[in-house]
Amino acid sequence: MGSLFKYTIDTLVSLGHRPTKKFGQNFLVDANVVEKFVRSAGLKIGDNVVEIGPGLATVSEEILKCGAKLFAIELDKRLFKFLEEKYRGNENFNPMNGDAVEFPIAALDKKCRSYKIVASLPYAISSPWLESLLQCENLPESMAIIIQLDAANRFLAPHGTKSFGPTSIFLQSAYAKVALCKVARNSFYPVPAVDSAMLFLVKKEQPFLFSREVKRVIREIFTNRRKQISKIANECNLSIGEWLHRNKIPSKARPEQVPVGTWQDFQAAIGLN
User: In the predicted model, is pLDDT for residue 166 greater than 50?
Assistant: First the structure.
């Protein structure tokens, strides 16, 4: 870890930059974690890769060594300038200064049908960025992301648990888990107050995507997750009796007790697109 930690500190000092909570800046300083992370992403020469929050290019450097074409988006203007200067003239590095929630695949062509996500995500944006990504016309083939362990557990939560919610439904409808590996807190600088994890996902052969309107309704239903789903539906003026009957869901069931596949059927049942 020593050399990467020293590189991080020395670079931050040279830039006159202090990591900010506002941007969720916790830089990876364990070279073994970085190497394992990028190696496990399974990158090949010529792959299109999107990276969110490249920061000091610790992960970017390993991605580029794989021969991939990298599209990175960095919100911090000072770090973006650093990245521009560091990779000036490198045709495989395509940086963008902007908000990843607004531009979830950076400057990559929206029509691109084959690309991967490899990113140590800023903690504050993991859920909103994922929601934005899942609205894209073409989804990434795979995702290798480092996020808060709690967020990873929410994303992968099975129905019937307290962590199961809208994001669990939307993600699991499109992606399958390949692996989940815990990352030690001292792998980052500054050391975060929460645990982190590497999460590896692969797109399903037939990913299911929810419409924006159905997502809105599902989120509204889960804001009352302690109530019975039939009562919530009545309050929202939703006619779901046939849907409940067809899927053998008791009217007294609560939202988190309804499986992912049944929520997919919900989209057709309520007739919203």
Answer: yes
